[in-house]
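re: that chain from earlier
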Amino acid sequence: MSHITKKQAHRLATSPLAMMRFKASGELPRVKKPGSPLITLLESMPEQIRMQMRGVRLSPKLGYRGGARFNNAHQLLKWLKPEEEMLEGQSWPAESCRDKRFQCRLSLDDLKEHCATWPSDELLKRARIF
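^ sequence. v structure.
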């Protein structure tokens, strides 16, 4: 039997359907790691740099429908990925906006065109992002 996480234990305790499934088949609620090309790009840089990317706007070019705006890229990352792991069937706003077919690798230039304010080249070089 695999290790039960706190999230899985909570789901079993609060969802009769999940508990019935577990008792009948031994199947735990599945854990899913939120991911997308934009999440990968944002996680590749330090929080300090993400905080300097201000006025970020989502678009289909970044793999998300709608034009939601965020104060900075760090806030955007927290919206895209509220937790390291989510339970299958658990919803969060970003997931409903994500284009599941979008698999293009994103670059800093892709993100830059969606930001009102961008960190200086010097700051990016110091952070070894450039």
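The radius of gyration is 18 Å.
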